[in-house]
Amino acid sequence: AARTRDDLRCPVVVIMGHVDTGKTKLLDKIRKTNVQEGEAGGITQQIGATYFEKKTLLAQTARLNETEKFDLTLPGMLVIDTPGHESFTNLRSRGSSLCDVAILVVDLMHGLEQQTIESLHMLRNRGTPFVVALNKVDRCYDWKTCKDSPIRDALKVQPEGTMQEFRSRASDAKLQLQEQGVNSNIYWEMGEDDWENSDFVPLVPTSAITGEGVQDILLLLCQISQRKLWRRLMWCANLQCTVLEVKAIDGLGMTVDLLVVNGYLREGDKAVFCTLDGPIVTEIRGLLTPPPSREMRIKSEYIHHKEIKGALGVKVIGNGLEKVMAGTPVLVVGPDDEVEDIKAEVMSD
Ligand code: GTP
Ligand code: MG
Ligand code: NA
User: Fold this and answer.
1) What's the gap in Å between 18 CA and the centre of ligand 3?
2) Cα separation values, 176 from 111, 163, 189, Å
3) Could you list which residues have their CB under 5 Å from ion ligand 3?
4) Domain Tr-type G: where (predicted)?
5) Which residue lies with its CA nearest to atom 26 of ligand 1?
């Protein structure tokens, strides 16, 4: 079938930024979960993946979309969470290499920090479009909570002193981005030329705790995906798949978490993985996902699938997965393929 603009896949969105800027909390807000408080030391140490259905995106942008009237056609969104701690540069690099678009989270109270800058340069080097969340806006002095509301509605009811602090901190962040060679502006103050300029970065004030601006960032990501990334997001039947994590799960044995960007993966497929000892061929014995709006790295009531379609995160059960290397591609041996060819191909990346 021809690839068309009417058949887009879910965009893969990665969340990056310095430690404790609120990346996981932002996802918790959208998921209505509490993953962050269950993390050891409140620190993310793995790559995560959460799939949001279209109906969730519609519900969580409904208020803002009363005025924006954006026709959302994406089938959903797949969001990859990454650690901000300095020791996980490899995971940030993997996350940034897998995504279509990114959210760079900045703590509005701290401005740009070391791993913010590192993340920013990773995204720039790959030419990945991103938006900046100016998070923790609720920590501006005397902030009046407007739970889950569009950010402009929330700013309208803030006292003048709160607004002064907000403007001054937002303008500091803008200057610090400028120092890194990044032009940016509060997204509703951007001119038409700024939107045309693919290097220009929209800023979205958010609170992951009280929810102001979360509608804005979701809708903005949908708009960028449909308006600017649609060519890249046209669904394609060729399998495009990468290993996110390899881990043992109680009762399941060794599993691999995969990011399937395009194509299908089916139970019974003969999959070729890269391991420390070279390529291996193994049958896919199980395809599991958490329910929608649930984090894949949290053990849950997994849903069993016969077939999954990208873009989606999926946990795979099979034999011999112990030495699979995270970050490597996965291929499937088709009916007309020679196993040796596929093995050579998978190792060539
Ligand atoms: P790492 O994954 O470890 O890099 O951290 P993170 O960026 O995922 O941040 P996390 O979600 O762990 O949040 C760090 C701390 O900031 C937690 O105590 C959160 O409750 C708090 N926090 C996050 N977002 C907000 C926010 O918008 N407002 C306020 N007031 N606190 C926040
Ligand atoms: Mg985190
Ligand atoms: Na944290």
Assistant:
1) 9
2) 8, 20, 18
3) 20, 42-43
4) 8-229
5) 136
The Cα–Cα gap between 253 and 62 comes to: 42
Of ligand 1's listed atoms, the one at least distance from the Cα of 17 is 7
User: Which ligand 1 atom sits closest to the C-alpha of 25?
Assistant: 11
Residue 132, amino acid? V
171 CA from centroid of ligand 1 (Å) = 22
pLDDT in tens, 225-245: 999 999 999 999 999 999 999
Angstrom distance (rounded) from CA 133 to CA 22: 10
SS3 101: strand
Q: How far is the CA of 24 from the centre of ligand 2 (A)?
A: 4
Distance 78 CA to ligand 3 centre (A): 21
- pLDDT tens digits along 73-110: 999 999 999 999 999 999 999 999 999 999 999 999 99
- 151: enclosing H helix or E strand: helix 151-156
How far is the C-alpha of 325 from the C-alpha of 146, rounded, in Å?
Answer: 45
Cα separation of the two ends of the chain:
27
Contact between 289 and 315 under an 8 Å Cβ cutoff? The reply is: yes
Helices (H), 32-143: 54-60, 62-68, 89-98, 114-126
| Ligand 1, residues at Cβ distance < 6 Å | 17, 19-25, 36, 42-44, 83-85, 135-136, 138-139, 207-209
Which ligand 1 atom is nearest residue 28's CA? 11
Rounded to two decimals, the pTM is 0.97
Tell which one of 20, 146, 207 to mutate to probe ligand 1, the residue whose CB is within 8 A of the most ligand atoms. Answer: 20
Q: How confident is the model at residue 17 (pLDDT cuts 50, 70, 90)?
A: very high
Say if residue 2 is preceded by a cis peptide, omega within 30 of 0.
Answer: no
- Ligand 1 atom with the smallest distance to the CA of 42 is 12
Amino acid at 96: S
Are the beta carbons of 52 and 292 closer than 8 angstroms? yes
Instruction: Please say whether the dihedral angle defined by the alpha carbons of residues 158, 161, 165 and 170, taken in this order, is positive or negative.
Output: positive
